[in-house]
Design brief:
By secondary structure, the protein is mainly α. 66% of the residues lie in helices and 0% in strands.
Length: 164
């Protein structure tokens, strides 16, 4: 009986044991799956590194453009200052027929219908009488506790009115 059990057990193990070529195929498949996984990780690393390098280069280009624009703006500002300086403007004005007016000698001509510009006053004058009280809606000045009690009593009063 023991021999029969061993024989049955050996047949059962042999029936479920895989063929050697299947084991080799599984190991080859696992090897290629591992290679595929490693390749995917390497691809992800390289693509992220490439994107970071491209972004860094774009930032460098933009910083260079920013610097060159600032230099150009400074050059234009200094050119404008040179052109509009007193030394440069005086000969051009005299060439156009303008004369230097001494203080107290200009003549002002009144023009009918002209309304002069008045300065804009954006803030009221400082003073103790101008302090105003903040305008808040009454709902925003009520505490949470007051609101809960008020709504509770309001519901109770409505329930008493409804009941016969």
């Amino acid at each position: 009986m023991v021999a029969l059990k061993l024989a049955m057990r050996k047949r059962l193990v042999q029936a479920y044991r895989q063929a050697p070529w299947r084991k080799q195929a599984q190991w080859i498949a696992l090897f290629f799956a591992g290679l595929l996984f490693i390749g995917a990780v390497i691809y992800m690393y390289l693509s992220v590194s490439q994107a970071a390098a491209t972004a860094g280069r774009d930032i460098q280009i933009l910083q260079y453009q920013k610097t060159s624009l600032r230099i150009q703006i400074a050059d234009e500002s200094s050119s404008l200052a040179e052109i509009t300086s007193v030394e440069a403007m005086r000969p051009r004005a005299e060439g156009l027929g303008f004369v230097l007016v001494e203080p107290g000698k200009p003549v002002f001509v009144p023009v009918p219908g002209y309304m002069p510009r008045f300065p804009i006053n954006l803030a009221p004058k400082a003073g103790p009488d101008l302090v105003q009280k903040a305008i808040l809606h009454p709902d925003y000045t009520q505490s949470l506790w007051d609101w809960l009690l008020g709504s509770f009593f309001e519901v109770n009063s409505q329930a008493e009115q409804v009941s016969p």
